[in-house]
Design brief:
BNR_rpt; single chain; Exo-alpha-sialidase; 1% helix; 358 residues; Xyloglucanase_GH74; 1 helix; mainly beta; WD40/YVTN_repeat-like_dom_sf
Length: 358
Amino acid sequence: MEALLAIGTRKGLFLARSANGGPFRVEPVRFSTIGVPSIAIDTRQAPVRLLAGLEYGHFGPSLRWSDDLGKTWQEAPSPPIAFPERTGTSLVKVWQLLPSPAEPDVVWAGAEPAALFRSEDRGETYRMVEGLWDHPTRPQWRPGGGGLCLHTIVPHPEDAGRIAIAASAVGFFRSADGGATWEPANRNIRAPFLPEGAQYPEFGQCVHKVAQHPARPERLYLQHHFGVYRSDDFGGTWTDVGSGLPSDFGFPIVTHPDDPDRLWVFPLHSDMNRTPVGYRYQVFRSDDGGAAWQGFSAGLPEGPVHASVLRDAATAGPAGLFFGTRDGEVYGSRDDGESWFTIARHLPDVLCVRAAVL
């Protein structure tokens, strides 16, 4: 078995490989000095395809793909993700790339300003999903601290017509007709930064990340700006499950590939102090759907540390559990977070991490 880890950073893409459970070997940087805010590893068919969203600075954002595990890269002759002229806007960043689990050649892309794009050629060219752009609430959407970004895409693996998204600071929206129409789905999610009496709005919640369990697709977990939530009906209703945590403020939330009741979060002190709780890296795990939590840190630096973990800088799958930090450290675990080993140090600011078994 070979595991592949893709690490997108502020200054380039790093690939690391592990054979038969051995140590990860980090390869030389790709796209040096170029920001890589989004990555996907598409293993649905041969050849395995890597997709990378890139930030070229004053040249603007773009997207490339590789069919030989990063040896060579291709780029569409015209901008692969572009807003229609009628929108009066242009692409700022590709925040999310996600191969559809229900449609073999479909890849979804989440963009800034908040928009959803669909590719039907494995991520080479895209078209904007008009229904979300034209949603009647859009004139009232406001950006979060990171911008008006669509950072999470949640396609239903058993029904290609059902898909959901999360955007900051817009909230969670879902569609039952392939994106033609959308509804806000934020019931019971509290937005304490709003005035008293208006803290449960239809939309306007600052959702940081949403994770879906692949074997139980109705089960979703959501990390809010303030709060951790679970849904058992694909976002129809949400239940607060963050009361057992030392802090319910954070960015990533990750589910176990086999156990729908097991998940991980990375608590930070607070909105005003975005450093790890206790000034050390601690990964908190729940084994019962959020009813109780336990922190793990064996093998991680004892501290003090001050760097956070960004919303897409953590992932879990058959290869293990992984996360990267804003000070360029990358860690892995093969026992569900109970102990950790170091994969890389002194990389640039880690923006996203993805893993796959090849």
